[in-house]
Q: What sequence folds into this?
């Protein structure tokens, strides 16, 4: 069991002059992408006793587990992530149910997990704790705002920022703090004097300028949020219903954290597994390999209709991959690009390019219409819940959301795409040539006409002097993020 020892040492407030010592730091000789040792562990207790998931003991009841299924760094597709531009976090979904058998059909299309006679008692007892995996400095605690209807007890969302010297970690989706950290922050004789149980804002960092907290290794920090709602009319049952929930039929713990560390190209967001030993990295990759193909996986089994999308992302860590600037530069920074709004167009779209991992045990070429020829995928998204209305070759209009496709030909300035399963009410496939240019960090895409057959797809003419953004067939993209994705 990789369980942190409970320490009796306390948090210590630190005051520094000015805005911090960041500017005085020297370049690090450490390169996370060349690491083979255990440098920094994950910020929660776990064991790898099973081949397809990690087991994490509850904080109150450490004889019971949550069952942690993780998603790869850099993922773009559900059920691995909601972030279609590429998730640069390490993410786990921790289920309270040991298997699908504990998720009960309550009738009328409603499912739930029995959480005890007292309200959510099993959820509270099995809920895990974030710990500091090494001696750290808490550099910020940010209040991100209230929630309603999604998380257990409608807990607000907090973020804790930790510094381990050259390495920084942000614990996200924090619901409430450990008793020790809560009492330290609420101490009326301390600098902060904030009761986080009742705090309602303003949003942002609650630390005054120059304030830090020293956190010893292994100390309890906070509880991650639990996606859970009581099922009306079924006492004791909870599920994951709520806007944004990926698993509405069962409650789960949402663990997400980001890590920034030195690499050969400078400090960058990396997969947290890069800081584990080679053996541990291999164990997590093997765990993912099993979970992706497990017909009973709590995370993946219910998503088989889109397996061709998310199973492409079967490598646990892509943060240090040589793929990171491939596809002629379109995969830069995980391949996500945001509409710029040039020429008075509306900034409401993203496009993302996704590598198909063909070298993992879970890769299955039969998932793709064009077999091993498909090495990349493409997806488009709209941030205002609108659909894409695309005119097909026969002039019919297909109304589709979250379109994705196989890139089956790559040229110096053009891609041939097979868009798959288009339509909210239909599953139509269509071919389309997409011309592209990357100049000065700006991607210009020109989309051709749709065709039912590959041989009939026509490559559109493309001239940057003429083809300016028009919110139709020509769109410009950059790396400045847009809200809503």
A:
């Amino acid at each position: 069991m990789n369980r942190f020892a409970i320490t009796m040492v306390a948090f210590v407030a630190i005051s520094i002059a000015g805005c911090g010592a960041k500017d005085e730091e020297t370049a690090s000789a450490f390169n996370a992408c060349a690491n083979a040792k255990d440098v920094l562990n994950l910020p929660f207790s776990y064991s790898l006793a099973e081949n397809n998931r990690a087991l994490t003991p509850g904080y109150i009841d450490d004889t019971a587990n949550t069952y942690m299924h993780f998603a790869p760094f850099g993922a773009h597709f559900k059920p691995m992530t909601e972030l279609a531009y590429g998730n640069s976090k390490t993410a786990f979904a921790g289920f309270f149910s040991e298997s699908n058998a504990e998720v009960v059909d309550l009738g009328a299309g409603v499912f739930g997990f029995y959480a005890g006679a007292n309200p959510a008692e099993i959820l509270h007892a099995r809920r895990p704790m974030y710990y500091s995996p090494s001696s750290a400095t808490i550099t910020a605690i940010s209040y991100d705002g209230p929630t309603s209807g999604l998380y257990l007890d409608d807990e607000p969302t907090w973020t804790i920022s930790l510094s381990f010297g050259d390495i920084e970690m942000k614990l996200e989706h924090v619901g409430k703090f450990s008793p020790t950290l809560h009492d330290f922050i609420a101490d009326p004789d301390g600098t902060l004097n904030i009761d986080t149980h009742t705090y309602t804002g303003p949003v942002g960092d609650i630390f005054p300028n120059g304030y830090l907290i020293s956190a010893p290794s292994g100390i309890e920090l906070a509880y991650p949020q639990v996606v859970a709602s009581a099922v009306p009319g079924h006492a004791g049952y909870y599920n994951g219903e709520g806007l944004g929930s990926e698993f509405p039929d069962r409650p789960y713990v949402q663990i997400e954290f980001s890590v920034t560390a030195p690499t050969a190209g400078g400090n960058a967001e990396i997969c947290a597994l890069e800081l584990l030993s080679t053996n541990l990295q291999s164990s997590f990759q093997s765990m993912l390999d099993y979970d992706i193909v497990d017909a009973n996986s709590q995370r993946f089994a219910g998503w088989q209709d889109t397996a061709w999308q998310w199973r492409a992302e079967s490598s646990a860590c892509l943060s240090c991959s040589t793929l990171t600037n491939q596809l002629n530069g379109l995969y830069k920074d995980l391949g996500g690009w945001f509409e710029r709004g040039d020429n008075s167009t509306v900034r409401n779209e993203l496009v993302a390019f996704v590598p198909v991992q063909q070298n993992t045990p879970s890769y299955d070429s039969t998932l793709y219409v064009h077999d091993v020829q498909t090495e990349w995928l493409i997806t488009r998204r709209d941030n205002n819940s609108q659909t894409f209305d695309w005119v097909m070759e026969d002039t019919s209009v297909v109304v589709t959301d979250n379109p994705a496709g196989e890139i089956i030909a790559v040229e110096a300035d053009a891609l041939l795409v097979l868009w798959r399963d288009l339509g909210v009410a239909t599953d139509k496939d269509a071919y389309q040539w997409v011309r592209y240019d990357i100049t000065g960090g700006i991607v210009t895409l020109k989309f051709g006409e749709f065709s039912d057959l590959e041989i009939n797809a026509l490559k559109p003419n493309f001239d940057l002097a003429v083809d300016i953004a028009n919110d139709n067939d020509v769109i410009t993209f950059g790396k400045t993020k847009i809200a809503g994705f």
